[in-house]
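Team,

Forwarding the record for the chain on the shared tracking sheet. I've put the sequence and predicted structure together so nobody has to dig through attachments.
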Amino acid sequence: MLELLELILTTSLWAAVVRIATPLIFATLGELICERAGVLNLGIEGIMTIGAMAGWLWVYQGGDLWGGVVFAAIVGMLFGFLHSILVVILVCHNMLVELESLCLPHLLVIMHIQ
């Protein structure tokens, strides 16, 4: 029991928790902005997946690490922009767009792996 208490009180554990949770915190903040605008965006996971794949591809093709981070952010913004165009301007059904935002990036990742 004492070992568990020591583990919970170590600063390295909490530093790792913050480091690992940071992308999820950023996604949550983006979702909060969408919710305040009146748009339900359930495809955040798909947008994060396609951004991560794009950043990985950038580095895999020989680009530098920070270029991969910037490229991942740009691809994520483009998918978010596609979502906003479909929902707000073209007035597509929100749940259908959510399925597209969630499933399309995962499909692209699977197709690239094979």
